[in-house]
Design brief:
Layout (H helix, E strand, L loop, with lengths): L16 H11 L2 H8 L10 H10 L1 H15 L7 H4 L22 H18 L9 E3 L5 E3 L8 H10 L14 H5 L2
Antiparallel strand pairs: 1-2
């Protein structure tokens, strides 16, 4: 019995990231890729080279694009829960599954899908944009609920009493980073 895994059946076998991206951009375009994947490299000044550079550096985005390639562009059936836990490049496609024609996608469908995801997220009570639950005190200060090292109002008092410029104690350090870089 041979224990070797047959990766040759996988549509990602031997396909580089740039080739994969060129195929999808030629078929769908950057606008639809952004609508379905919500990855900024497909919206802000998109190009193949800049997208490849970003995707090579960012694992979560690359895996998202590779999964999109497998299940939308190559139209394979959904992966089993066991295979889904693996990254798309490591998944094993059964011998009886063959890649199909690319799925027909539209911006309207992407918007409906986004609305559906938003409703699911709201039903679960997920806080949009926050990794941890947030709470605030009577003065409007925001604190994290789930972190071990949570800030307290006493921490704010300590930092403002030791700061040399009291007028800058309430200023966020990164609030005006754009303004500083333009000088």
């Amino acid at each position: 019995m041979n224990n070797d895994i047959n990766y040759k059946n996988s549509p990602l076998h031997g396909v580089g990231l740039k080739t994969l991206l060129v195929e999808m951009v030629d078929h769908y375009g950057f606008e639809i890729l952004f609508a379905y994947l919500s990855i900024n490299c497909f919206k802000t000044n998109p190009s193949i080279d800049s997208s490849v550079k970003f995707l090579k550096k960012t694992d979560w985005a690359r895996e998202k694009v590779e999964a999109f390639y497998l299940y939308q562009f190559k139209n394979l059936p959904r992966a089993s829960s066991e295979q889904f836990a693996l990254s798309p490049r490591d998944r094993i496609v059964p011998d009886d599954q063959e890649p199909g024609e690319p799925a027909e996608l539209s911006l309207e469908d992407a918007e409906r899908l986004r609305e559906k995801r938003d409703k699911k997220s709201a039903a679960r009570g997920d806080g949009k944009g926050f990794r941890f639950g947030k709470s605030s005190d009577n003065e409007g200060n925001t604190y994290s609920k789930d972190r071990k090292n949570t800030r307290t109002p006493n921490d704010d008092a300590k930092s403002s009493s030791t700061s040399k410029a009291p007028s800058e104690s309430n200023v966020q350090p990164w609030a005006n980073w754009e303004n500083r870089s333009k000088r």
